[in-house]
Amino acid sequence: MAMGYIKIHRKIWKSDLWKLDAKSLKLAVHCILKARHEDGEWFDGRTKKYVLLKRGEFISSTRQLAEEVNDSVVGTQKRIGFLKKIGFLRRYPERSFSKFLVINYHKYNPEYEHKGEHE
């Protein structure tokens, strides 16, 4: 996994995210961390094709997310549903994977204004 950082503005305290239970907040932050910080491609080993991913998108599955945040699959499914309901996350299921979009990703991880700032 690429190393780097994200910026989370203090206005998160006043957002719907801050009102979440701890496991849902953990999943939300995890999604921000997994999301691409710039457009790119992901190779699907099953179909042998490249998938275009835009800034704020990532590829995963409920099972994989559950393992990564140390939660049950059922609990993670419930939390994904809630994150979708509050307008934080969108899921695009495909045949061999799911593409997720962190809605308003730019609010949680703004683009760098100065070149070299993130290096």
Descriptive notes:
With 119 residues, the protein is an alpha+beta fold. It has a single domain (10-108), classed as Winged helix-like DNA-binding domain superfamily/Winged helix DNA-binding domain (Arc Repressor Mutant, subunit A), CATH 1.10.10. The protein has 4 helices and 5 strands. The chain has helices at residues 22-34, 62-68, 73-85, 105-108; strands at 40-44, 49-53, 57-60, 89-93, 98-102. The strands form 2 sheets. It has a 3-stranded antiparallel sheet with strand order 3-5-4. Strands 1-2 form a two-stranded antiparallel sheet. Helix 1 (22-34) packs across helix 3 (73-85) and helix 2 (62-68) packs across helix 3. The longest helix is centred in the N-terminal third of the chain and has 13 residues, at 22-34. The mean pLDDT is 87.
